[in-house]
Amino acid sequence: MVDGVVNPAGERSGASGSGGRRGRASTSQFGALGLNLADPRVEASVLGLLDTVEVELRASVSSADPFVTEAARHLLEAGGKRFRPLLVALGAQFGDPTGAQVVPAAVVMELTHLATLYHDDVMDEAAVRRGAPSANSRWTNSVAILVGDYLFARAADIAADLGPEAVRLQARTFARLVHGQIAETVGPRAGDDPVTHYLNVIADKTGSLIATSARFGGMFGGAPAEHVEALAGYGETIGVAFQLSDDLLDIASESVQSGKTPGTDLREGVPTLPVLYARAADDSDASSVRLREILATGPLTDDALHAEALGLLRESPALKRARETVRSYAEDARARLAPLPESPSRHALESLCDYIADRTS
């Protein structure tokens, strides 16, 4: 068993060489997610696993048709944090990370994630993904949907080699992803609490795949069953916390920290957690009343209204409440690690909880 402290980031080195290929994983990229790989043995294990995953990802999307290969590699070569393979690698540290099925398990998770991105961009009519033209804008919506289907199929094919349980888990995770997307598209029904609905959507769309990634790491690393369950619970909770913290960064941070223009969700009319809290508030002070008035108008395409709403949100009780919710999820994720043995790897997963709680405070 290899053990050590890790920093849950997983951001790889930038594009290098022709075609924008991703370079080798490096510890500097882990810092972007607050993960600290302090133990040399775990660092070597995790980095080696991620480098091998990168090679296998490229091989797994290759096709006899050059166009399919190009389209399937489009987002793969655009980069990304590889957070899901990272969780597989970290989960495997509680067993044997050199197990033959650990890398294929990580590839299954990342292919499933990439497939959802192709579909999401069609639904969102996105023009850019990871700093590159989205597949739907470069080709067509039909091509993007079909490429996403192809990646799902490749993930299922590789999962079949891991055994029936892996196929079942991947299929159930896929079902939750779709369920979450449907719920988001339809919106809360009459009588539903919008905040509860939103948190459930995030758990299905984001938390489920991160949970399965951590579970796969433990499973295919041969960790004890109780450790596998703890990893899965941690993965789902930390996944929700990460998404919620991104919601806050969109409002509270400058673009250099969040990676996008502040208030993008506001401008597009996306009701994230701080907005939902602000809408539901019954505060009677002038700022809160004015904020609710502006938010009721829908997408804030008017620059003056957008700037006013962003300023009011940054000073609102709703943002403070959202921060408390993020911290609650981060602490819940930490608590779910309790069954795991004290070790550098467990401390690494705990460090991610600290990072999420601090990044939005």
UniProtKB/TrEMBL annotation:
Stored Pfam families: polyprenyl_synt
InterPro entries the UniProt entry points to: Isoprenoid_synthase_dom_sf, Polyprenyl_synt, Polyprenyl_synt_CS
Cofactor(s) required, per the database record: Mg(2+)
Signal peptide: none
Annotated segments matching region Disordered: 1-25
Catalytic EC class: transferase
Keyword Transferase: yes
Enzyme Commission identifier(s): 2.5.1.30
Record's keyword annotation contains Oxidoreductase: no
Entries under Gene3D superfamilies matching the protein: Farnesyl Diphosphate Synthase
Domain of life, per lineage: Bacteria
Alphabetic keyword roster: Magnesium, Metal-binding, Transferase
One GO MF term attached to the UniProt entry: heptaprenyl diphosphate synthase activity
One GO process term, biological-process aspect: isoprenoid biosynthetic process
Family, similarity comment: Belongs to the FPP/GGPP synthase family.
The name this protein goes by in its record: Heptaprenyl diphosphate synthase
